[in-house]
Amino acid sequence: MSLPDLQVSPSQPGSLPAKAAPEARKPAAPRLYALDALRVVAALSVLLFHYTGIDAATKANWGVNQKDLFPSIFPVTSYGSYGVQLFFIISGFVICMSAWDRTPGHFVRARFVRLFPAYWFSIVVAVVIWRGIPDGQRTVPSISDSLTNITMLQVPLSAQHLVGAYWTLWVELTFYLIFLVVLWKGLDYLRVTIFCWLWLLAGVLVQQDQDIPLLGIFAQPLNTALFVSGITMYLMYRFGPDLKLWLLLAASWLVMQTDLVEHADGLKAKGMDRDPYIALALVTVFYLLVLAIALRKAEWVRWKWLATAGALVYPLYLLHEELGWAMIRKLYGPLGAWETLAVTTVAIVVLSWLVHKLVENPSQRWLRNRLNKEAAYPTEHRNPAHRY
């Protein structure tokens, strides 16, 4: 899952009216390594869930129920899918941080450059796997659906995902579009808090009626609450905690827990071995971990290697599912379960590093330079009418 570089932008207290909020405090550290650490935890949790925590026998991977293959770790890794919820909390925090004092154009360019190069590469990998070494059980995505994946708009266009994990990218996109609205007027304490309350209220309305036009797309209750919690905790980090922010954070948790427990109950009813209240406890721990960062209780985490590890999270998230399952299908017979798990995990991490170095970095540099030049080029020089 994509997040921007965790560089802390300098505060500009002058941009906030004195009556709206306390003066912003300048961040103490140039990078939030603790957030990098949480991103790594979230990514590895999702990876281990897909490899060892799915309570089903499917030819897409092992062909054997993972609960029987890995009985010692299954009770833990079966909850690894909730790493996605941690990603969404972090995303709210980091997107608000990176967008502060930025223009809408800069925000859109930065998000495009961050998301798409590695994503497009993963599409090529997924198409090769689906066409070259299919699992023989699932329906191969059509050429039309594969092309639609290039846009990242599979959900509204009702196209099949090439990689199951792509569904979260649509959720991220809707968050960016919603946040762009408030960014258009410029971010400050008051605007962002009002936005969070309104967005959270929209999520509550969707809980009551799923058929409200557009709200069901842009205000899914669980995801909205998670993003709002991250934004709120960034405001705490930037301005310091106050009663209004504590109330907003508590409201986000209450909305989150309602939808999370309902969703987990539904999974349990379908035979998935998860306790709804263990899931709630886990996501609550995620809240507390990010809150510790917001309250500056984790500034002792400054291990430089976490920056590199954090940079691998997005390519790992994109590659681990279909590519990892293809490796598992080929290796499980000759190697056995634990050996296959180890080899596949290490291989995916190494490949993620290679993609980051050889694909992401060069393509992002090229795209960033090109888009920045386009943005800086006067509009009149691009108008054919001015050539004559």
UniProtKB/TrEMBL annotation:
Signal peptide from the UniProt entry: none
GO biological process: lipopolysaccharide biosynthetic process
Disordered: annotated segments: 1-23
Record-annotated Acyltransferase domain positions: 33-355
TM helices/strands, residue ranges: 79-100, 112-133, 165-184, 189-206, 212-237, 277-295, 301-319, 331-355
Gene Ontology terms, MF aspect: acyltransferase activity, transferring groups other than amino-acyl groups
Gene Ontology cellular component terms for the protein in this record: membrane
Alphabetized UniProt keyword annotations: Acyltransferase, Membrane, Transferase, Transmembrane, Transmembrane helix
The name this protein goes by in its record: Acyltransferase
Provenance organism: Streptomyces qinzhouensis
